[in-house]
Each structure stands twice: as structure tokens, then as C-alpha cells.
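Notes continue from the previous slide.

Worked example: a multi-chain complex. Inputs as given:
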Amino acid sequence: MNRTRSSAIRGLSLYVLLSAGLITADHYSPVVRQIFQFAAVIGVPVHFLASLPSTVLERMQGKLEPTDQLRRNYAALREHNLILQARLHRFEFLESENIRLRRLLSAVPATAEKVTLAALVAVNPDPKGQAVLINKGSADGVFQGQPVVDAGGIVGQVTRPGMFRSTVSLVTRENQGISVQVARTSLRAVIYGGGRNRPLRVLYLDRNSDIRTGDLLVTSGLAGRYPAGYPVALVTAVERNLSESFMNVAAEPTSYLGSEREVLLLWLSALDQPVASDLLDSEGELVD
Amino acid sequence: MQRRTWVPIATGIVALVFFALPSEEPLRGFLPDWVSLVLIYWTFALPARMMVGMAWSVGLVVDIVSFGLPGAYALSKAVLVYLARVLALRVRTYPLWQQTIVVLGLLGIEALILTLIDFIVSGDLTGLQRWTAVVVGALVWPVVYWILRRARHLARLGH
């Protein structure tokens, strides 16, 4: 009995060491993660089965929706679509003007903006609720760090692109930052996630900064991660502490954070590269 | 007597799917780790057949499916099954309520391991949900036991 007991402990220690090895290897090298992303293919049938109840329920609800409700939804969508089409014309005009101006300032050519629609897979990839799973992967061109948006604004970025499924880390993920600017004043800042169901925080803003509740924070495009101009959050609280030199700003994300079914994956175009910085002064304004 | 050895594997896969089920906010903290419960049952029922290596592989699959830290669940499931094996012969004779307490202890140890790993890797000690899942898991044990016992009889898997 003693022999089998000690050999059993040795067996366990082997696996403990193996696991510890995996965890440390993952910490220091992205190779382990890549292997796992490749192996995530075996998770696809599991996720498919796990998402079945939700999708079936949704389909049933769709079939049970009364006809006049459907008609009203359709009419509202058509109206909204019409308004968006009109806005799109104006946007395309501004975009071509922007391209012309950029050509004057630098030689960076402009490329068309590309987007891909993705649907949320109804599973919870993260027990802390700070990530969602989408049904597109590297087979569709998804890359590490790719920005994800929905109708409300920035949802987050792709942190683990698998072959067919990718994990998107939400903006609320702790210690994950986005460079933003205040829409009203162009004040630059960085906003960090505070955890699920907690407000986002803007850190390191000087006490005298011009920012107030209700201000919209949009991506500034500075870090090259996210294209500029997408809404991120609305400021909900500004606290100026007399004893501290910085102020505390809390903001609620504008995105639906995965409660809507569809999201858009963005490809950055050359338009999103910030204009050469030697042409801008410290305020971010063009120098004459 | 025909031994249907695919039955334990099938219960494991079902547990995995249940583990991956999406859950809304208030519910999420109250769902137990089904994979752990199923592993514990089969270890109690067939301690000689349940290898720590198998549990480790199952944990690795859970790591892959849950996009978690590679090796975390592998470690926790391996330790879980090892301890369950050690206790199996004794616990099998216990009445159900006593078994529930043992299961609570086992799940608690697993949660402790996972929290420790989390802490070492990211200095992160939040995560009350892991512990509510432990409590719910123990409470759910009698149901799991009953269902899997039926499955075991159907599979004609004696000791």
C-alpha cells in the first residue's frame, strides 16, 4: 500500500509540475497561447451545443412575435436606414475631403475602410464576465488587438483570435486602457476598465482639466489601436479632490457590451493614422 | 455482461457542455462546476479506473473550452481527482449528507487552488463567484449522485 501511495503522489507531482510549467510558459511566451488557440477548435462543438438552448429560444421568440410588432419594427428600421443613408452621403464627402487634405500634408495613401459583421456566440468564455466570444476567427482575417464596435460604440478588442472563434475583451476589463478624447474639447486622456458592472475610469487628468458630467469620450486614435472618433463612454461623475493633484472621473460605456447579438470588426485604414506629429503643436492643433 | 465504458465519457462531455452554457448576470454565480462534480462521482464509484492523468487531460480540455489560463483547470482537476481517489473507499460508505460535506471540501480545495493561481499570475483576489459555485456544487451533489448512479447502472459498470 505504501508503494502505491508514494507512486501515486509522484504521479500527481508530475502533473502539478506539468501544469505549473504550462502556466509559467504561457506567462513568458505567446507560443503556448497560440497552440491553445489552435486547439480551441475542439471547443467549437461544445460551444455549439451550449449555445443551442439560447438560439432555439430566440428563434421561438422570433416566431412568436406578433405580426404588427414585426411590422412596426420593420418600419422603424427602414426609417432609421434612410436617415443613416443620408448621413452616409455626407460622411463620404467628408472622407474624400479628408483624403485630399491628408495628401497635401503627407504622402500616406488612403485605403478603404473595411468592416466585418460578427455574431456573439452564446457562451461565457470568461468567469469574470469581461470578455465575449464571437463567431469569427483568424480564418476570417481576425487579428490580435482588432477593434470591435457595436451600435453604441467601442465594445473592446480581440484578445484571443482562434481559428473560427475569437475572444473579445470588453472595455470594462480591468486595467485595459483606451486612448480617448473629450468630444467637446478635444482634451486627450486614457480611460481604463474598472471591472464588470463598474464604471470606467479616466486617470491622471490634471485637476484643472475642462471635463464635466455628460461629456462624450471618443477614441482619439493616438495609440494606433482603435480608429478615431468612435464613442467609448459618457462621463457620469467628476470628483475634484482638494488634496490630490489629479481628479477622479467615472464614465459609463456607450456600447451595449455584448447584450446585443451583432458586433462589427474593424480594420484600420491609413485614415486612422494620426497626422504626422511635427505638424501639430502641443494642443493637437495644426501649426501654421 | 456488456460494459458500456462510453457512458462515463458521455457524462463528462455533457458536463462540459453544461459548463459552457451561457448565463445571465444574477444566475452566473450560482452555477456549479459540473465537470468537477462528474469527476468526483466517477472517482468515488470507480477509484481504480480513474487516473489522475485522465483528470489532468479533462482539466486541459476545460482550459481550452473556457479560454482560461492554460494549465489552471488541468492542475485543479488533477488535484481534485487525486484527493477524491484517496478518500473514495471511505466516502462511498458514508450517508449522502456526509458525502455532501466531503464534496464541499473537495470543491473548496479546487477553488482555493484556482484562486491561488489567479493571485500568483495576476495578483487578483476578487471573484466571490467561485466560492458560491462551490457551495451550490455541494448542495447539488445529491442530485448529481442520483443521476450518475442511474447512468452507471445502465452502463453496467460495477466496481
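Summary box: The CA atoms of residues 18 and 202 of chain A lie 41 Å apart. Chain A is about 35% helix and 25% strand.
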